[in-house]
Design a protein that fits this description.
By secondary structure, this protein is an all-beta fold. The protein is about 0% helix and about 40% strand. The chain is built from no helices and 4 strands. It is elongated and about 40 Å long. GO terms for molecular function: large ribosomal subunit rRNA binding; structural constituent of ribosome. It is found in: Plastid, Chloroplast. One of its GO terms (biological process) is translation. Belongs to the universal ribosomal protein uL14 family.
Length: about 70
């Protein structure tokens, strides 16, 4: 389960490496935990150089995989 302040590894080629969850918005009802398929609001903590995404940018993300 993903909750606010959780650090996440990124699984796509957007240029971001690590995200920190700041809000769960796609969960059923008023839950504070995200599971696979839920939408979260996150801030980029680490990004690849020379990519369109930058550090400290706020984005929306979908949870697609957990370990």
């Amino acid at each position: 389960m993903i909750q606010p302040q959780t650090l996440l590894n990124v699984a796509d080629n957007s240029g971001a490496r690590k995200l920190m969850c700041i809000r769960v918005i796609g969960a059923a009802g008023n839950q504070r935990y995200a599971r696979i398929g839920d939408v979260i609001v996150a801030v980029i903590k680490d990004a690849l150089p020379q990519m369109p995404l930058e550090r400290s940018e706020v984005i929306r993300a979908v949870i697609v995989r957990t370990c």
